[in-house]
Structure formats: structure tokens, C-alpha cells
Amino acid sequence: MKIGKKIIKWIFYFLLIPITYIIVSLILSSITVDRKINNEKSEKLIYLNTNGVHLDIIIPIKNIDSLVLSGIKYNKNEKYLSFGWGEENFYINTPTWGDLTFNNAFRAIFLKSSTLIHVTRYNQKRSDWVEIKVNESELQKLNSYLLNTFEVNENGIKIMLENKGYSTIDDFYKSKGSYSCFKTCNTWVNNGFKKSGLKSCLWTPFDFGLMNKYK
Predict the structure, then answer these.
(1) pLDDT at 122 over 90
(2) What is the DSSP letter of 151?
């Protein structure tokens, strides 16, 4: 009888924790942190994109600070860079959702682990990107946020993982921070918007939280 009660108790906790997480996440995702108002004209462009789960920040190369560009692989024909952040093992070993395993997901969410910045290069703008107009101050703050996320070696150079990209137009770079269910790839993007003074969610682990603010 006691064993039965313990099993029921553990099942209850097993269901309660994820349900509570989802409810709190949805509530906090719906709360908007308004854009900080200043007198500057919003004449610069950035973009948001999602693969259905994972958000990326996309910036025209001409709007990216030289310190951010330093050490990043790109060529003169490419006009945009996208930046995503995530858990290293998950990024490298889960190129598609078909490659997802319980072990990779568990490690990413619950275990302290190293992280990467995923940089993808584009020749032209894509139709599914969400356009966001920003001013110079907001753009500078977003550039600073990106710069401070990259891990560098003893010479101050970004650390690229050789031959680890998914294709010929993307690469992975070592990053600061640890991934968890409280700091996801989408939380990282949302924090970047918040610190830049842009409209954002109070907190969100989901891609749709921030995307819904700009649709």
C-alpha cells in the first residue's frame, strides 16, 4: 500500500513539474516588456527567423560591428549573418529533428554543458524573415550583446569549430554560458532584445513568445 502511494506521488510530481513549467512559460511569454522610447529614428534593419522551434537573430553585415565580425568566416558576396545560441552537444549531434534522441535532449535541458553560437551566412533576404526596424543605439547594444556572448582564446580571437557546420554556409563558434530549461536558445534571443531596449517577453523559452510580439 505504501509503495502504491509512493508511485502515485511520484507520478503526480512527474506530471506537475512539466505542466507548471509550461503554464508559467506561457504566462511570462505573453507579458510584454515595452520598447524603450528615445528620439532616434529607426532606420536600421534586423530580422527574426525561426525553424519552428529555434529563433535566430539576423543582421545585415553592413549593420554588424567590426568587433563582432572579427574572426567570423564570411565573404564579400554574403550580405546577412544569422546568430543562434544553444547547447554544444545538441547542436552538433542534432542537425535535424529526426536526429533528436532522449539522451541529447536530457543533457541539454538538465545538465550543465558548454554552448555554441551558430552563424549562418546568406546572400539575400528570405521571405519568412520578420523585419524589425531599430535605431542606432539599439543596434549598438545588440552588437555588444552578441560580442559578449562569444568565447575567445588567450589572444582574444573567436574559437571556430572546424568542419562542424551543417552546410557550406554555416559555422559554430564557442560561446559563453550554459544551456538549461530556464535559459534556452529562445531565451538568449529574447534577452538580447530586452538588453537592447527592444520589445520583448518578460521571459520565454519558446520561439513563438518573441515572434508573436513582432507579427
Answers:
(1) yes
(2) -
Amino acid at 181: C
Q: How far is CA 87 from the centre of its chain?
A: 10
3-class SS letters over 30-74 = HCEECCCCCCCCCCEEEEEEECCCCEEEEEEHHHCCHHHHCCCCC
Which long-range contacts (C-beta less than 8 Å, at least 24 apart) are formed by 34-38?
34/199, 35/197, 35/198, 35/199, 36/197, 38/135, 38/137, 38/197
- Tens of pLDDT, residue by residue over 20-50, are 889 999 999 999 999 998 889 999 999 999 9
Q: Which amino acid is at 38?
A: N
User: Helices in 111-167 by DSSP H: which ranges?
Assistant: 136-149
Is the separation of the CB atoms in 157 and 79 below 8 Å? no
Q: Which candidate, 113, 83, 93, places its Cα nearest to that of 178?
A: 113
* Residue range 42-85, pLDDT digits in tens: 999 999 999 888 899 999 999 999 999 999 999 989 999 999 99
Rounded-to-integer distance, Cα 138 and Cα 23, Å: 31
Check the CA dihedral 195-179-80-156 and report its sign: positive
Contact 74, 61 (CB under 8 A): yes
Q: Which helix (H) or strand (E) holds 17?
A: helix 2-30
